[in-house]
Amino acid sequence: MDDWIDYYDSTHTIYVSKLHRDLHFQIIARDILSYISSPEATVLDYACGEALSAAQVASACGKLILAEPAPGVRGRLIARFAPNTKIRVRSLEDVKKMQEQSVDLAVMNSVAQYMSPEELDSALLNIRRLLKPSGRLVLGDILQPNVGMGRDVMALLSFGLRHGFLKDALIGLISTALSDYRHLRSRIGLQRYSEDEITAKLSAAGFAVQRAHTNIGHNRWRMTFVARPPLVRG
Ligand SMILES: C[S@@+](CC[C@H](N)C(=O)[O-])C[C@H]1O[C@@H](n2cnc3c(N)ncnc32)[C@H](O)[C@@H]1O
Q1: pLDDT value of position 36
Q2: 220 in a structural domain
Q3: Quick one: DSSP state of residue 112?
Q4: How many angstroms separate the alpha carbon of residue 47 from the centre of ligand 1?
Q5: How many whole angstroms from 149 Cα to the centroid of ligand 1?
Q6: pLDDT in tens, 100-155
Q7: Residue 18 in domain
Q8: Does the keyword Methyltransferase apply (predicted)?
């Protein structure tokens, strides 16, 4: 296993049970829905993963583009959402070729930590190009430099406790500790950014930035940012 894309393409244990996986995607979809401002909106979910609740997002917008780099995940997305005429499945290469100013809302949740800083810069520049002047990018689940793996463990356990899968969460933590995840996390690591660092990165890509009050998803120790093309006065 070479990188995080291979990891997400494998039969990994990041979701400790079906309930955990289903709840995860329901919560992400609910949070994405809160950022959709028009039923006609074109929404881009950048590195969407399995996106199990994407049909709910699609029902609230005009078009939903699910972009995913892992080929196996992409194959399942194509099969799962083939009947849904509002959903398109794309690779990240396809996204580079999309028409400029064609997207109202781009979401990149829980992805920046897996990218090199250079990959993130180039993805941000591309998304900036794709956004309409009134569009927004929601960049979620950013890990902070001073918050260690202990907080991720706590967040998972409290999520499990609240939703009745604490035992599975404990078992899942042990399997993850013994898995490729642990090896990759110590070998390649996860990218972390302070609020100032991510603001500087987004500004360099041509965005005006605000931190959101709450993170997307269940982990309150991670951060979400809302970035938009700056207003042109004239
Ligand atoms: C934790 S999942 C997040 C999926 C979804 N956005 C969510 O919130 O549930 C991480 C995603 O990042 C993708 N990924 C991993 N490494 C990447 C890279 N270097 N560039 C782009 N995407 C990457 C994986 O394929 C996977 O879909």
Answers
A1: 98
A2: yes
A3: G
A4: 5
A5: 18
A6: 999 999 999 999 999 999 999 999 999 999 999 999 999 999 999 988 888 989 99
A7: yes
A8: yes
Q: What does the mean pLDDT of the chain come to? A: 95
Selection from 25, 95, 32, 26 nearest residue 226 by Cα: 32
Whether the Cβ atoms of residue 49 and residue 68 lie closer than 8 Å to each other: yes
What 166-173 contacts at long range (C-beta under 8 Å, 24+ apart), as own/partner pairs, is 168/16, 168/17, 168/19, 168/20, 169/16, 169/20, 171/16, 172/13, 172/15, 172/16, 172/17, 172/20, 173/16
Whichever domain contains 75, its CATH number is 3.40.50.150
What domain range includes position 117?
A: 14-145+190-228
29 in a structural domain:
yes
In a domain, 25, yes or no: yes
pLDDT tens per residue across span 33-59: 999 999 999 999 999 999 999 999 999
Q: Tokens 């070998």 label which residue? A: 187
Query: 233 CA to middle of ligand 1, Å?
Result: 36
pTM for this entry? 0.95
Ligand 1, CB within 6 Å, residue ranges: 4-5, 8, 28, 47-49, 68-70, 109-111, 114-115, 119
Query: Domain total for the chain?
Result: 1
